[in-house]
Amino acid sequence: MIAAPAFLAYLLAAVLFIFGIRRLRSAETARSGNSISAFGMLIALGTTLFITGTLSLPEILAGMVIGGAIGAVSAQKVKMTAMPQMVAAFNGVGGGAAALIALSEFYQADVLGTRPETLVGSITAVLSILIGCVSFAGSVIAFSKLQDLFLTGSVSFPLQRTVNAAVLLVALLCGANAIAGGAILPFLSPFASIAVLFFLALGLGVLLVVPIGGADMPIVISLLNAFTGLAAAMSGFVLSNYVLIISGTLVGSSGTILTRLMSSSLGRPLGKILFASVSGAVKKSEGGEERPVNAASPEDVAALLNYEAEKVIMVPGYGLAVAQAQGAMAELARLLEERGKEVKFAIHPVAGRMPGHMNVLLAEADVPYDRLYDMEDINDEFAETDVVIVVGANDVVNPAASDPEVESPISGMPVLDVKSARHVVFIKRSLSPGFAGVDNPLFYDTEKTMMLFADAKQGLQDVIAAVKSGQ
Amino acid sequence: MSSTLLLSEFAVFVIAAFLGFELITRVPSLLHTPLMSATNAIHGIVLVGAILALAAPGDTFTRVIGFIAVVFGSMNVMGGYWVTNRMLEMFRARPARRRRRPR
What we know:
The complex is a heterodimer of chains A (471) and B (103). In chain A, 57% of the residues lie in helices and 7% in strands. Chain A has helices at residues 4-23, 30-52, 58-77, 83-112, 119-146, 160-179, 190-209, 217-239, 242-265, 270-275, 298-308, 318-322, 326-338, 357-364, 375-378, 456-469, and strands spanning 311-316, 342-347, 372-374, 387-391, 423-428, 449-453. The longest helix of chain A has 30 residues, at 83-112. In chain B, helix 2 (32-42) packs antiparallel against helix 4 (60-100) and helix 3 packs antiparallel against helix 4 (60-100).
């Protein structure tokens, strides 16, 4: 147990976390919310250093300096487009830390005998190791997929679910054996079973995330974020530490809600993402028949914008983020506004790589966030829009998603209703279908659609130059 | 562990869980990514546990894993807050720059 002043300091930290999260609900107060939460963290850490008398333990300060430096440098250097994998990485190490704490505490109680061994301590240690390791390994795989390192795309093998269930079962059995002091599996000592549990849980984390495709990765990261929170809460029970229990649980439950918000805004039920057998390997559009498209030059697009457009909606997609073209899109928008046209940005919930990711990217490019519209808010406006410019997006504007005749991986996903606009301009490298591998019928509507085949950034810059010289 | 202590810990757990649910409902999707990142930083609180684990008397094994846990936890805290702040800074920087560019 800890002394009353330290307890109160921990309580203050927890209150600051709650207050900080609350302020993150609106864009105006979000930044101060994060600072408040960071201040709470400072109080909690200072208190801990004080009560442990850390100055006599140089390895603690050394570890904090090393870890802090790695964290700060990578956070400062990362590009905004690589944000999702950065969050995955920081989340993974958090989960790993929770698992290691529980491992250490169990070892201290069971092998060294320097701590009392309690039933609750053992149960929560097992849970913390299980959840923390799953989160760590899962985050590593998520990071790798988003960074295109290894195991990219969705990897599936036969009997996947059976294997997962078997691994989980054996892991739980080992955990139960450790809790029961070796009474269930006499050939495994409690600590040996904890060690087996540790590695099985790591394997389980890999197995769970490996089959999931890149498009669903944000949801998985959010879920793993909630897992890490829960693992932290469990290690709080192991250590009887309230600030860990409160903050870990807060993240666990708010992370679960956030995951559900995300998955529902993407029209992807969580169960389907995690357990559905990968929806029938993407069907390539059969036959080699070439369908005509209306391939346009930047000048054609500029003429359309200059002479036929009063109201323009920009639809940025993943390709825009990859090509780092958010600045060019913002510039085109300003140019059109200077000519008295109305410009709005339509943000699909999955634009970019995470919900809200595109908002961050466009904010970076100086687009005022009150100009960005969510799908629900803008879908009715497409019908009265002259030109929609779609850059680096396909699946999120694909009318095939709502076509009951077409069975595809994106069936039922809500899409931006760009087909209702008078003209649609796609700036896209090629006709290749998007992430989901579904052909977009809009490409072949030669009356309505212009295809500008170019890299997102180059294409936008060419259009800007053409618009400028057009008047 | 006395059962009253355990029960009060459990009560705190349940209440914190409900509080977390309540805090997050109705967040605009604009803020989903920053929010995920911010809560990601908050579970960096495991660093407190890592410090306690490393400070406890132990042997080489506990010192090694305790040290790794402290490094991991510090990465989580430092990186988590830093990256969230970078994201949110962009939202804030807007109005000031907008005034400089009259249209």
